[in-house]
Amino acid sequence: MIIVRLTGGLGNQMFQYAAGLSLAEMHRTVLKLDVSWFRMDPQYEAHNRYALSCLNITEQFATQEEVDRVRGVSLTTIEQASIRVARAVRFFRYADSLPSHGNLHYEKSLNFYPEFFDQPDPTYLHGIFQSERFFGDCANLRLHFTFRYPPQPKVVEAEHMIRTGGPSVAVHFRRGDYVRNATFNKGIGVVPLQYYYRAVGMIRERIPNATLYIFSDDIDTIEREFKPEGAHVFVRATQPWHSYDKIRLMSICDHAIISNSTFAWWGAWLNPSSNKVVIAPMPWYSGSENQNDDILPASWLPLIAHEH
Questions:
Q1: Model confidence pLDDT, tens digit, residues 41-69
Q2: Pick from 240, 4, 213: which is nearest to 107 by CA?
Q3: Would you say 162 and 249 are in contact if contact means Cβ atoms under 8 Å apart?
């Protein structure tokens, strides 16, 4: 059994699920989800809720007993002796029901590290695992990350517009809690407008007639501030608690310019085309000394977000 601790918003949860699924499939075992974090961290606002139910994942939740057993707890001398005696007399079901040292695996680095795949069955995963390299060999992941619910009528209209309107580029702005939350603002930072203007210029050089489809968690502010040249549409087809429809619509665009948001990352990644152009800001964490150099797939184009 592999248990993964889910934290953060939908994008982070998708990374955690993908890494857990990859390790579980390698061991030919089951993946279970620990969702207890969502009851403990109010600073994450709307992200403080389990969000993977919008996808066709294998949705199995770990019980507290399973978490304790796989993660491991400190054992008393009597408990350790009870386990030894139970195994000696072949009471394996009883022995397995008792707490154990388990295998709690804390993420070692923001970057990919191959030791991740050395973890045994069972393992409890604690981290964010934000790199394709943690799950690149997981052949079934795209099936898990299809959408469970049909789109709303306005989303269907937007999808038709994107599919029939010629070359398309999803452009994502992340503001929201990156602006309001002082910790996020300092540690992650908001990507400046100049990054987007330069990225649009790069896209226009390659696909001059592309239409930009602009997405944001603060679309009104972005429409006031962002004035790109050429054809563009500010997308308002999604409802607040159906934010996954933004990922759905971004993923059908031919190309992407993304923010430093895992939500936008998945919108670009779920497009399976090998010919897509994806431009992403680097460094990813503009306000932090800790960086993830492996967060962008090799084919994506990094663009310096902050010019000095």
A1: 655 555 678 999 999 999 999 999 999 99
A2: 4
A3: yes
Let me know: does 253 contact 269? Beta carbons within 8 Å.
no
Segment 198-211 mean pLDDT: 97
- Note the pLDDT tens digit of each residue in 14-36: 999 999 999 999 999 999 999 99
Pairing status of strand 301-304 against strand 232-234? unpaired
- Dihedral sign for Cα atoms in the order 111, 285, 219, 229: negative
Query: Is 122 exposed, middle or buried (CB count within 10 Å of its CB: 0-12, 13-18, 19+)?
Result: buried
Nearest alpha carbon to residue 18 among 141, 185, 158: 141
Total H helices, total E strands in the chain:
12, 10
Burial of 26 (0-12, 13-18, 19+ CB in 10 A): middle
- 151 preceded by cis ω (within 30°)? no
pTM, 2 dp: 0.88
